[in-house]
Every structure is written in structure tokens, then in C-alpha cells.
Amino acid sequence: MSYSFAKVKFDKSFWLKYRYLLILGAFGIWITFFDSNSLISLAKIAKEVRALKKENSFYKTEIENAKQQREYLFSNPINLEKFAREKYLMKKDDEDVFIIVEENKK
Question: Is 16 within a domain?
């Protein structure tokens, strides 16, 4: 073997001795950074999938809450009238509605 302190000389036996390791390293670098299905893009996609699953579960719970509220409102006309008056400020013809807004003191 020929070594020098200033720089290392690689002769033909080095490349032949470690050819499989070098090919495997080049393949690993290619898969990690340059391929269309690289590990970096797969990690980004997995992160996006986790966020979408979380959003999906949030919307499922919101749908269940809306179904329960709908069932509660349409089960009794008094509940529906109360909801309309409170949420949408609806009133009867002979009524006046006063909205009182409290100011938050800092």
C-alpha cells in the first residue's frame, strides 16, 4: 500500500476491495436525496398524511356534534325557537330585541 502524510493515494486494489461498499453508499445517497421517491419526500408525505388524519378525526367529531345538536333542536319546537332566538337573534313581530355588549376592561 502506498500512503503519504499529505494525501492518501488510492490505488486500484482499494476500489476493487471496497467496490460493493462504495456502490451501496452511492445507491444510499441516490435513494436519500435524488430519487423521485426519496426518503426526504416520503417523510414529507408521511407528515402530511398524519396532519390529514388528524384533521379527518376533528371533522368526524364535528359532524357527530352537529348531528346531536340537530337531533336536539328538531326533537322539540321549543328548543328550536330558543336556538333561533339566541344564535340568530330572531324575534316575534311584536317584540324588540336589545343586544347588550359588555366591554372587557384591561
Answer: yes
**Domain span including residue 18:** 1-35
Contact 32, 38 (CB under 8 A): yes
Backbone angles phi, psi at 22, to 5 degrees: -65, -40
Q: What is the secondary structure of 18-86 as a DSSP string?
A: THHHHHHHHHHHIIIIISTT-HHHHHHHHHHHHHHHHHHHHHHHHHHHHHHHHHHHHH-HHHHHHHHHH
Verdict on whether the full-model pTM lies above 0.70: no
Same domain, 27 and 48: no
State pLDDT tens for residues 45-66. 999 999 999 999 999 999 999 9
**Residues 92 and 86: beta-carbon distance below 8 Å:** no
